[in-house]
Amino acid sequence: MGGSLNDRPRVAIIGCGLIGRKRADALGANPLVACADIEIDRARALSSRSTAACTADWREVVRRDDVDVIIVATINSLLAEISVAALEAGKHVLVEKPAARNAEELELIIAAQKPSGKLVHVGFNHRYHPALLKAKQLHDEGALGEMMFVRGRYGHGGRAGYDREWRADPKLAGGGELIDQGVHLIDLARLFLGAFTHVDGFARTYYWDMAVDDNAFLLLRTRNDKTAALHVSCTEWKNLFSLEIYGRQGKLHAEGLGGSYGLERLAYYRMLPEMGPPETTIWEFPRGDDSWRVETAEFLEDIRLGRKPSATLDDAHAVLTVVGEIYKRSGYDFR
Prior knowledge:
10 helices, alpha/beta, 26% strand
């Protein structure tokens, strides 16, 4: 790893916007040694919190000998290029979702990771929200019995000028709402149901003046017909997150992500032998979004222990394969 202080990985962040700042806040005692952003003022602002160097050229960061881990938090069009360069330079990588603009582009990272011997974690931070962590624990303990299906909805209402931001540019983003928030729902559905072998759905631009989708509707099935019905939207005028997970013996309902999405909570409905109203247990998580800290800490511990990350390039590839199929069926070509 490079003999960093007290065996703590030394971290650099490329992309110092909102997500880069969240990752910096999540580092704990691990030293931030360098920041890069094409908007140098953002890099300066982030580096000013510590003794980190700052630059507008991400390649300078990749070449540094005092960096063990690179967090890639840029726009989608740069994720794969920077991740590949970081791996080739012998760095571990935490790359934000979706990790690339499409599955084929992601395969460049996969090809670079294998000979590098370095770890790559894909930033599916929603897995680490407390309601979802509790839901996964209950699922793994068998609280739901045999799984049946998942129903998920996720969306926001955009903001003035949203259709002129980089996420509305197909060359920069690789798609619209489906590749933005949709990848989280697909990843979570896979987490509870397993790999999807049948993909159906439709993406459409209903409202925003942009060349990418603002809504997507998905019907995904596993080999044994466990099914996910998902809807993502940036015409959700009241921000919404809802994930319902159904088994033969009960149901879990995670909703809210804090802030404008409402109080994060998890409800567990346990079916009784006589049927009728279920036994209900509710957990509420009012302390805000701690997912960034939990996820980042886990990956840094993966590096310290030489342990395989939980959210892998293979997970991201499976998610992007679904995204690509929906775009193909809907007549979008973002390549």
